[in-house]
Design a protein that fits this description.
The chain has nine helices and twelve strands. With about 280 residues, it is α/β, with parallel strands linked by helices. It folds into two domains: about 5-145, Rossmann fold (3-Layer(aba) Sandwich), CATH 3.40.50.620; about 155-270, HUPs (Rossmann fold), CATH 3.40.50. A ten-stranded mixed β-sheet has the order 3-2-1-4-5-12-9-6-7-8, with helices on both faces. A two-stranded antiparallel ribbon has the order 10-11. Strand 4 (about 110-115), helix 4 (about 125-135) and strand 5 form a beta-alpha-beta unit. Helix 3 packs parallel to helix 4 and helix 8 packs across helix 9 (about 260-265). The protein is globular, with a radius of gyration of 20 Å. The two termini are about 20 Å apart.
C-alpha cells in the first residue's frame, strides 16, 4: 500500500517534471507527498592565498536560496491544484552529501521519486538517484527528464531474470501492477532453450494469480546489450512504465552501478520503478 511518498525537487527552470509526476502518483493512490528542495551550500573558488571573496559567497547563497524557494513554491501550487495533501520542505546540504541525506529521509516513506539526471547537468541528480536506490531500502521511481505526462499504467513492462533484485522490484511494484491495464513480463536471454524460460512462465503465472492480465515475452539477446533490448522493446510495445531490479553496490560513499542499471538510468524514456 502506498500512502506516503517523498520526491526530490530538482533545482532549475526545467526541473519540475519529477515533482509533477510524483504528485500524479500521490493523486492516484490518495497518498500524502513530501517534496524536498535542497538549499545547497556555495561552491566557491579558492585563490592561491586561500581567500574566498565574500561577494562570491553571498551571490551563490542568494541564487541557491532563490532556486530552492522557486522549487518549493512550484511544488506546493501543483499539489494544491491536484487536491493532494503535501508537505514542502527546504533542507540545507552540500552537493556531496545531498544523495545520502535524501536516501536516509526516504527510509521513512513507502516510495521515493527522483529525477533522471539531464545530460551535461550537475552530477548531484545522478548521485541522489543512485544513493536512494542503494541506501533507502525501498522502491524508487526514476522519472525521465523528457517526461511530460502524469502516471499512466496501460502497458507495464516487468523485467524478469529470476534474480533477488527483480523479485524485490516486482513485490514493491504490486500496487502499480494491480492498477495496470496489461503487464508484459520480459525476459532477455542469451540463447533459446535456457532455464529462464521456465522461470519467466512461472512469474507470469504468479502475477496472473493476482488477477493481472499478463503476457510473457522472451527476447533473444543479439548484438546489442540488455539495456538497449529493454528500451527498444519498450518503445515498440508502447510501454508506459517499467519495473526492474536495480543492480550494483555501494562502497562507503561511492556507488557502483551494474551495467544494465547504468545504461537504463542514462537512456530511459519512460518512468522506471527500481528496487535494490
Amino acid at each position: 500500500m502506498i500512502k506516503d511518498i517523498v520526491v526530490n525537487l530538482s533545482i532549475g527552470e526545467r526541473a519540475g517534471f519529477a515533482g509533477d509526476y510524483a504528485i500524479s502518483v500521490a493523486a492516484a493512490f490518495e497518498a500524502h507527498i513530501s517534496g524536498i528542495a535542497f538549499l545547497y551550500e556555495p561552491v566557491v573558488p579558492v585563490s592561491g592565498a586561500g581567500y574566498i571573496p565574500a561577494d562570491v559567497v553571498e551571490t551563490q547563497e542568494h541564487e541557491n536560496a532563490a532556486a530552492a524557494q522557486a522549487a518549493i513554491d512550484r511544488f506546493a501550487k501543483a499539489a494544491a491544484n491536484a487536491g493532494v495533501g503535501a508537505q514542502p520542505l527546504t533542507l540545507a546540504a552540500t552537493f556531496a552529501a545531498a544523495g545520502d541525506h535524501f536516501a536516509r529521509i526516504a527510509r521513512r516513506y513507502d516510495l521515493a521519486v527522483v529525477a533522471q539526471a539531464e545530460p551535461e547537468s550537475a552530477a548531484v541528480e545522478a548521485e541522489i538517484a543512485e544513493a536512494t536506490l542503494f541506501e533507502s531500502g525501498g522502491p524508487v521511481i526514476i522519472v525521465p527528464y523528457i517526461q511530460k505526462t502524469p502516471l499512466k499504467l496501460d502497458n507495464v513492462m516487468v523485467c524478469w531474470d529470476g534474480s533477488r533484485a527483480a523479485t524485490r522490484a516486482i513485490g514493491d511494484a504490486m500496487p502499480f501492477l494491480e492498477r495496470s491495464g496489461r503487464v508484459e513480463v520480459v525476459i532477455v536471454a542469451n540463447e533459446r532453450g535456457k532455464k529462464d524460460e521456465i522461470e519467466g512462465a512461472d512469474m507470469g503465472a504468479h502475477l496472473a494469480r493476482h488477477g493481472l492480465k499478463v503476457e510473457v515475452k522472451r527476447t533473444i539477446l543479439g548484438d546489442i546489450d540488455v539495456a538497449d533490448v529493454i528500451l527498444s522493446h519498450a518503445a515498440d510495445a508502447g510501454t508506459d512504465f517499467i519495473v526492474m531490479g536495480g543492480y550494483g553496490h555501494s562502497r562507503l560513499r561511492e556507488f557502483v552501478l551494474g551495467g544494465v542499471t547504468r545504461s537504463i538510468l542514462r537512456a530511459m524514456t519512460v518512468p522506471v520503478l527500481m528496487s535494490h
